[in-house]
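Lab manual, section 2.4: Encoding a predicted structure.

Procedure: take the sequence of the chain (318 residues), apply the prediction step described in section 2.3, and record the output as structure tokens. A sample record is shown.
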Amino acid sequence: MKVTDHINQSGNKTLLSFEILPPLKGKGIQSLYQHLDPLMEFKPSFINVTYHRSEHTFKKRADGRFEKVVIRKRPGTESICAAIMNKYNVDTVPHLICGGFSVNETEDALINLNYLGIDNVLVLRGDAAKNESAFEAEPDGHAYAIDLLQQVTNLNAGIYLEEDLKNTTRTRFCIGVAGYPEKHFEAPNMESDLRYLKAKVDAGADYIVTQMFFDNKKYFAFVKACRDMGIEVPIIPGLKPIYTKKQLTTLPKTFHIDLPSDLSEAIQHCKTDDEVEKVGTEWLLQQSVELKKAGVPVLHYYTLGRPHIVANVVKDLV
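Recorded output:
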């Protein structure tokens, strides 16, 4: 079932969704089930599964020369989505990224997802590789999310990379894209960032899910700016718990977001990470209560590593 169908059939009720990471290579899927088990009692409408680009490393050969080796630390997004659907009978949303993938690899992934009965994808450019100062596309890959989005919409229209294919099957993906209430860090200003976002919606994006934020005023302002720009698709807020003091510096640096002064001051007064978790849990709960009261279509939680915090918040919310 498509994300937009869930929203349209909700009767204006605020739905729930969760986002997870694939297990690290070498780890079994049981750890992922243990992560999801405490969350499934809340009957989420869908589960997002992130995709991770390949990375390059150099290994020294016996003859002294170095060999470039491609590795992927968290493979398996497609199969994980299928496993989650099979175990929990819930819809999944695999992420698709530009970085580290050729257009042919992307088409193969989309074909596999279609075979598996997966109706949704979240289209992202993705981050730069760890050894790159800025994002670099594969020589035969997409440089921008809108190009990747166009490939998905082409398949939805039955247009494959091999132009001579006849009587092709059309896919039916519901396409999500990312939005940034505090502006994408590479955009020169918010207005240009919104224009890029509108271009993606005009090209076929069905809904938007936001980068995490900790000040609801920024989400509401972002939604208003989108509506003023003529963007009418659902805008899903993305939420994340804070649970360590270290995140006061890592979150703004990594995700280019601000933390409200009330939140940062409360965390700075904490003596242990257990105290930080209590502050972060309460902050997330209050964010969720206000957003739900405002009638947001979905509360989307980035559960990465801390499902119990999200479970505690949702338990008090519902």
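Check your result against the sample. The longest helix spans residues 273-293.
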